[in-house]
Amino acid sequence: MKSKNKILAICAVLIVIAAVLLIVKPWAADKPAVTQPTVEPVVTESPTEAPTEEPTQEPTEVPTVAPATAVPETTDAPAAADLTADNPVLAQVGDNQILLSDVQEIAGLLYNYGYTEKENDYQYALNYMLNQEIIKHHIAQAGLDQFTDEEKTAFANEAAAQWEEALNNYVEYYLTEDTQEQRDTLRAQAIAYYAAQGYSQDTLLENLMLEEEYNRLEEQLANGYTPTEDEINAVFNEYGEQYRQQYEGNVPMYEFYTQRYGYESWYVPEGYRAILHILLKVDDDLLTAYTDAENAYDEAEGAETPDEEAVAAAKTALDAAREAVLAYVQPQLDDIYARLEKGEDFKNLIVEYGKDPGMEDVTNLEKGYPVHKESIIYDSAFTQGAFQERMAKVGDYSDPVIGQNGVHVLYYLADMEGGLVMTDEIHQEISDYLVSNKVNEAYNAGLETWKADMNIVTYQDALDAAQAQADAEAAEEEAAAQATAQPEADSAQDDAAATDAPAVQADATQAPAAN
Q1: What is the C-alpha separation between 104 and 126, in angstroms, rounded?
Q2: How far are the Cα atoms of 22, 165, 509, 511 from residue 514, in angstroms, in the given order?
Q3: How many Å apart are CA 121 and CA 129, to the nearest integer?
Q4: Buried b / exposed e across 449-477, counting CB within 10 Å, b at 16+?
């Protein structure tokens, strides 16, 4: 675990550096996304475990930002490019040339970060690079790259701290003998390693300052704009209605997508209540015997033609198993209920008796688990216990509930707000989205002005030729990979046939292939 953490720490530093190198600021804001599942989930069985931690919804995120893709217009007619060069010039900004190798590097980064669908999208990469040149030009013209001595000192200190952390992480990971000599050797290796990747304390400093320049530009473009509550509510109502249509009256779908898969939702179905609980552990054999008895009773009672004697016998066995489980934790139950009757805080009893790790979380203790009568994410016994007759109002606590993980005593903490719910996180998300829109509008309008005095030349023929070659090479590689894979698949089928075993097990829901 320690080694893994060290690896992650080193990777984190590299990722941070790479992310700053590939700075992508707003100025292409997306609308808040609304998940649109196309198939309603079919719930085939109730969850078998009581909660061990609060099911968490995906935190609301700032809308994703992508690089601007508008093609900057050239200010002069481009001269003919050398299409035979190994590394042709694809564009020129003033005296600065953008080579194919430059575009290839950025194209790879954009693909790795998910901004393009193919690895060698040269047109997209070149557009991005030209826009970055325009932005840099404007930043310099507007004086946004000018810093005071105090600011420069702060950047230098932060860069030094980040660099030292990166070196220390490398040393700690590879250290096998804690001597000064080995530490010095590893530190030198770390410097050489990062240098080979193009990283140094100086590049960290440059990137910190560059990031601040972009922050200043964003503030300039926003021009002091702050969304009004009316604007925020308008967006909330517009997109919230889509969530309502998706989840209203459909708790299984709501939990399937928000709880199991982490999609966000601005809408919460009505009828949820917040539940705390005390989980008491039970001997495994007793709990297994109870589960077996419960299954046997359900089977006997659910038979097409129930046998009354068999049902009665199964019920007797189930009652005996239940009594054995409760007897195992009876001393704890007696103390818990006696202290609840005297008004003791339920949370104190959770701390003293509870065995659910989820209830050790401060947030869970404050908010409780969200439980609905139609919930699919909990042990069915737990869900039923949350709505038993004794749980009629906030502040009530349940009779003992035997579940898959032990015995529960549940507490009705609160009724949860249903419908469209504006949380602080959603409010901030919408505010950020509106600011990004405003910045995006100002950026698109300003882009034309910023490049007016710039000399930008694009060699489209060279770009098209490089793209065609990259596409052809990618197609050849894919064809070769398929050709290599096919003999292996044929061999596997031959081996399966030789042993009279089917190579592929057909899905029972699929029709056989046509001959």
Answers
A1: 9
A2: 51, 63, 15, 9
A3: 12
A4: ebbeebebbbbeebbebbbeebeeeeeee
What are the C-alpha distances in Å from 191 to residues 187, 210, 258, 473?
6, 23, 45, 36
For residues 85 and 76, give the distance between their C-alpha atoms in angstroms, rounded to a whole number: 22
In this structure, is the dihedral angle defined by the CA atoms of residues 339, 345, 346 and 352, taken in order, positive or negative? Answer: negative
CA distance 347 to 365: 7
What strands lie across the sheet with 406-415, from one edge to the other?
369-371, 273-280, 406-415, 401-403
Q: Are 372 and 271 spatial neighbours (Cβ–Cβ below 8 Å)?
A: yes
pTM given for the model: 0.61
Extended beta strands in 431-487, E state: 456-458
Closest of 116, 134, 133 to residue 125, by C-alpha: 116
> How far is the C-alpha of 318 from the C-alpha of 33, rounded, in Å?
49
Residue 77 has pLDDT above 90, yes or no: no
The dihedrals phi and psi of 327, each to the nearest 5 degrees, come to -65, -30
Q: Is 35 left (phi over 0), alpha (psi -120 to 50) or beta?
A: beta
Q: Cβ neighbours of residue 499 under 8 Å, at least 6 residues apart?
A: none
Lowest mean pLDDT among 80-84, 148-152, 359-363, 425-429: 80-84
Q: How many CB atoms lie within 10 A of CB 182?
A: 14
Six-digit token string for 272: 């949820």
Which residues on neighbouring strands pair with residue 274, listed in sequence order? 370, 414
Q: What is the DSSP letter of 160?
A: H
pLDDT at 55: 35
Distance CA 40, CA 322 (A): 37
Q: Taking each helix axis as running N to C, give the angle between helix 122-141 and helix 100-112, from 0 to 180 degrees, rounded to the nearest 10.
A: 100
Residue carrying the six token digits 């009672």:
301
- Reduced to 3 states, what is the DSSP secondary structure of residue 76? coil
Helix axes 460-498, 100-112, angle to 10 degrees: 50
Place of tokens 């609060």: 54
**Measuring CA to CA, how many Å separate 269 from each of 55, 189, 200, 375, 416?**
16, 57, 52, 11, 10
With cut-offs at 50, 70 and 90, classify the pLDDT of residue 80: low
